[in-house]
Every structure is written in C-alpha cells, then in structure tokens.
Structures
1.
Amino acid sequence: MIPTLDTASPADTSASSDAGLGISAARHRSAELETTIRQHPERFRVLTGDRPTGRLHLGHYFGTLHNRVRLQNLGVELLVVIADYQVLTDRDVADRLPEHVEELVLDYLAVGIDPGRATIFTHSAIPALNQLLLPFLSLISVAELGRNPTVKDEIAQSAQASVSGLMFTYPAHQAADILFCKANLVPVGQDQLPHLEATRTIARRFNNRYANGGVPVFPEPDALLSAAPLLLGTDGTKMSKSRGNAIALAATADETARLIRGAKTDAIRHITYEPATRPEIASLLLLTALCLDRDPRAVAEDIGPRGAATLKAVATEAVNEHLKPIRARRALYAKDRHRVHEILQAGNGHATALADSTLREVRIAMNSLL
Ligand code: ATP
Ligand code: MG
C-alpha cells in the first residue's frame, strides 16, 4: 500500500521554484484530515481533476490520482472534472482536444477510478457551473489574482505572447469547478495550493456577503496532499505534461527506461535521501520508494555507493513493475472508445443536475431569482 502523508517519511522536494504557499501547514492539515476521512468517509465530497493537455504521468499518479482512488475505495463520493476550457489558459489552441479527453478517461479507468461510483465530466458541458464564475469574479480582486504564485508560475511557463484574461482569472474558474458541487476535499499536488486558497477565500466571502440567516452556501474546501506533492520530472523541475519532462502512465517499459536513464541527477556518487539539497536524487528515490512501498531513506541506503546509474536501474524496474497492471488495464479499456463516451455522458448529466441546483441556491441567496 502506498503511504499517505501521515505515514510517509518526509517527501519535501521544496527546493524547487514551485514551492507552494503554506506547504507545511497543508501537510499538517492533510494528516489530520486522513484520520477524519477514515472515521467518517460520508462527510466528504471530493472534486479534483486535470486539464486535457496530454497523457497523465507519474506526477499525477503519486500526486493526486492514487489519492482519488483510495478515497473512492474508502467510500468518499468522488467527482473528477476534465477541465477542457482551461486548456486555453496557456495554449493558443485546444489542440487535439477530443483525443486528450479520451486519453484522460482511459487513464482514470486504468488507475481504478470506477465510473459506477465516481462522476467524470467535462466542465465545458455544464452551463450552470460556468455561470458561477460571474459572482465569483466579483469576490476576488485584481491584486489578489496578480499575487497568486501559481498564476505567476503558469504565466512564466506559458508559451503565449501575452497574459490572457482566462489565465489571469484561473483561480476563479477553479473555484467554480470545485464549489459547483459543494466539494469539501480536493486531492491535489503542491502547485495547486494557492488556487485552493483562492477557492476558500471566494467561498468564505460569498457566505459572508450572501448567506441568509448565516447558513453558509459553500463549504471551504481543504486540499489533501499525498506523500509526493511535488514529483520532479527528468529535468529536475516539476513533472508536467507541458514541460516535456514527464513519464506517462501509458509509456512503454522501454520508453520509461530511456526517460529515467536520461533524468538529471547530481555530481555526488554516494546516494543519500536529502530532499532540500539533492532534489533530483530525492525525487527518484521517492518515486522508487512509492512504487515499492518502502521508505526512500531505506532505498537510498541500499544503493549507497553504487551511484546514480544503479538508482536509475532500480527506479526503472520499480516503476515498470508498478505500472504493469495499470498499463494492461489501459490497453483493454482503449479498445472500447464507445464506453468512454457513455461514461462522459452519464457524468455530465449528473454534474449538470448538481450545478443547476447550486446555481439556483446562489441566485436565491443573491436575490436574483424572481
Ligand atoms: P500542464 O503542464 O498542462 O499544466 P500538469 O502536468 O501540470 O499539466 P495538471 O493537469 O495541471 O497537470 O495537474 C493536474 C493535477 O495533478 C493537479 O492536482 C496537480 O497538482 C497534480 N500534479 C501535476 N503535476 C504534479 C507533480 N509533478 N507532482 C505532484 N502532483 C502533480
Ligand atoms: Mg499544471
């Protein structure tokens, strides 16, 4: 079993420039939440998701996907948004969108998200969700949006010539994605913490301004971090679909070996687990440890003087073994694209009903429903 934050050894790769807002507070809170979730899974509704910008990778898997499946299997209600409008945040065109959406659904099914229990939907198909954006935008200032570290980072990483209104207002869109179904738990990677803080702020301000008789309309959702809130890619920065540094879940065993062989390490031969000073080595050790259900320090001790080449060989084998059943399931599901569309249709139907009901409540609270 892959460790959750409370049982894992420190997985702090915060030497990266992606180091988020309040990471240690978020880690602490996640450990507390784990206890409550185990006792009362019925108290939680999870909303999380991904942009259809390419195949999901190991960063997604250990950062959030594994937590989604774990929560689902604990009996927590799970909704997964495919954030298709958000592709345009830092891309000029929504290139190969239908294909990317299908690929995402296949990745979800392969890792164990069960459409019989979970809701998988595309947010562009849910008009009432998108209507929440207007009141939400009124609750956050331009200065706050400009200060958001994730927005700043995504602007820096973007290939676009200028910052679009969509990119700048991303935190408000994400608030609509989360709050339309009144989710109170969001399993995300570390890079998303500032966005989640913005969602909490918007929920709080909406309640303060509009809640009739003090009954809040929205919960203030919590982030749930995993044992790997920031897995690094082969170039030593956050593993991302868009940075060309990712190992896709659907990669072949050979591709995986080639990518890990080319991963950035450092000049020190002896392998030690020191996330703050040796982030690339630490991330490879953590990845290996998560696949083997071991402590990254113990993996480091085993390898010790045998150096980075041995670490990479061990990591490759661990990853390929761990992903073998996932890859096999994915290949099976890929043969039935019709089913993928049925899953999305059902998910969009359920999400529409939830969004309609929330929008109605919002409009009543705002006195706009005559
Ligand atoms: P893009 O490059 O298009 O932004 P991405 O790889 O960053 O893609 P997203 O769709 O933006 O992926 O992120 C989806 C979810 O996966 C978020 O919760 C994010 O925090 C998490 N995630 C993404 N990359 C990592 C990573 N390297 N480590 C841990 N979690 C991650
Ligand atoms: Mg991203």
2.
Amino acid sequence: MKKYKIVLLSGDGIGPEISEVSKKVLKKLSKNHNFDIEIIEKLFGGIAYEKYGTPAPDETLDQCKKSDAVLLACVGDIKYDSLARELRPESGLLKLRSALNLFANIRPVKIRKSLLDSSTLKKEIVEHVDLIVVRELIGGIYFGKPRGHITNTQIPKAFNTMIYDSAEIERITEIAIKIAKQRNKKICSVDKSNVLEVSQLWRDTVLNIALKDKDISLSNMYVDNAAMQLVKDPGQFDVILTSNLFGDILSDLAAMLTGSIGMLPSASLNNNGPGVFEPVHGSAPDIAGKNMANPIAMLLSASMMLKIGLNEEKAAENLETAVDKVLSNGFRTADLADGSSKVLSCSEIGDKIINEI
Ligand code: NAD
C-alpha cells in the first residue's frame, strides 16, 4: 500500500473549519483508493505567532520540507495588521514559498455547469471558461532588490525593483509547457514589453523556448489587454503564463469569473520537493467560527494535491465528481446561495460530499 505523509496547516479564521472537512474527505478517499495518508498538523500564520512569536516557525517549515505535500487552509486577521511586517501571518506565506522554492503558482479557473448563474458576467461569456494561470511566484518586483524608502529628500520617495534573469523565466516557461501539453497546447504569455525592459527579456526568453516545441502554440499579450480580454472573452485562453505581479492581479480577476472565491484552488510547485496546495481565498474573519464557510476551494486544492503532488489521479477525480454531484443536486454554502438552492453549513456540505465519495 502506498503511504504518504502530508502536513496540514489550518492557519487562522475559517481555516480550522474547512480543514476539518478536508481531513475527513482525505481519510475516506484513502480508504476507497487503497493508500495510507498520515496527516501531520502544524501551527502556521497568526496562531503560530501567538504561540511562538513568528508566523512560520522553523519546526513547521522543517516538517513541510520532509513531507510529500503541504495542504494549507488560510492565514491572517485584522488584529495582526499592526505587527511589524515580518511578524504578520502573510509574511509567513512568503517565507514558506521561499523555504520550499515554490517558483510556480498554478491556478485553474474552470466554470462548473451548476454554478453558471453565480458569475457576475453573462452566462454566454463564462460558459466555456477552462483556463490555468501559471504565475512565477518567487521573483520579480515582490522580491527584487534594491527596495525601500528614501527619506532624506524634500518629498518622501519609495521604490521597488522588477528584475528577472533568463533562468527564472525559462523554468516557469517549462512548467507552462508541461501543463499546456496535458490540455489544448495553447500558451498566452502576458507581459508589458512595450514599456518594460524586464518584460522584453521575458518575451524573448519565452519565445526562444516555446518555438523549440512544435506542439505548443504560443501567443503574447500585453497585460492591460489581457485584463480586458479576460472579461470580454475568457474562453479564448488555455494556459496564461505570466510574472509574479501580473499573475497576482490577473489570477484574482480570472478567479472571479467563476462566481465565488470560495470555489478556487491553487498549487505552488517547484521541480522537486513538496508543493503547497491551498485555496485562493483568505481567512474570511467576517464569517470565521460560524460554520458558514465554503470548504470547496480547499477540497479542490486537496484534489490538486492528490493529482499533482501524490499521483493519486483516481482519488482526485473521485473527489471532483463528488463536489459536482452535490452542487448539481442544488446544495450550496451561503456564499453561493441563490433563490432555488438549499443552503448548508460548512460541515453539512462536507458530509454531503463525503457521502458521494
Ligand atoms: P478573504 O478571501 O478572506 O475574504 C473576502 C470575502 O470572501 C469575505 O467576505 C469572506 O467572507 C469571503 N470568503 C472568503 N473565503 C470564503 C469561503 N471559503 N467561503 C465563504 N466565503 C468566503 O479576503 P480578505 O477579507 O481581504 O482577507 C482576510 C484576511 O485573509 C486578511 O488578513 C488577509 O491578509 C488574509 N489573506 C490570506 C490569504 C492566504 O492565506 N493565502 C489570501 C488572501 C488574504
């Protein structure tokens, strides 16, 4: 029997509620698909700060490094916003990404038929949406140096550096190619090469690699146009490849095409070593502790973990089908409620999904 060791980081806010559902779901899947899964729970985020004075304790990071995969719920709360930047829960996320060298962030955006009416866009615009955003995650302007404030001038100034070397662009392009090959083989690389030198290097490097691969059809788009096209005709995209800053913004935009942030999973990967699988949403402090959260984004993240991280494809499919079945039977959490659906709590919808597995 295959044995896996995963680390579960429940974090803050709604994290413990959606993690509870995820644990039960993983246990049932492991039983049904004949594998053993050890779930090691560690503190991370605000809750880790409370106990250890840091959002990403070494012990947590070490355990993550030794695991087969990391499943993360969410971190953050307004009460930590006044802490020094490096002590805030969100800084723990950057530390985890750096520690595991997670340079590739993968966000699938797929419209589920039963939720077509939940999108703020017209049905005919979103019905064919099935795209993946591949975002570079540990380079670019979020990490570039020098950065800082200049205070010894007449008016205060601040600056950041947007920098990539070609090796960083090559490795994320290879990931996008690998993913595109399992899909429609179309990559749209998004940059701002009409204005930025760093984007020109991005475009030239992507082109160089993609041209060598006859299977791949590559197009380029400026980021402002990409934002417009995502709203105008999102069905045209298969794989969107982009840098850290542009990917951060475009993936949130793409995420909302599907209706609720409570539905969207993501994976952060490197070439070898454990990946981190997590919902796109934050800790939703406004509904934390009320058993109202939608656990599906975390369950779909667990499905990505099973498929990409553990190679348990059948179990992943089983979970996705169970989620679709429950939604098409008209069950929803409050964030997705429409006049005709039956609204369930976080744990209730979790139980419905478990029954379908
Ligand atoms: P958020 O994603 O937590 O919430 C935005 C809105 O969506 C809220 O109304 C919330 O109730 C709702 N929502 C989010 N997830 C939901 C779910 N699963 N089910 C139902 N409704 C859901 O974003 P925010 O309010 O801007 O941030 C709250 C905290 O989360 C902040 O401290 C922020 O820094 C942090 N955050 C963490 C992550 C992460 O852990 N990866 C990501 C984004 C924000």
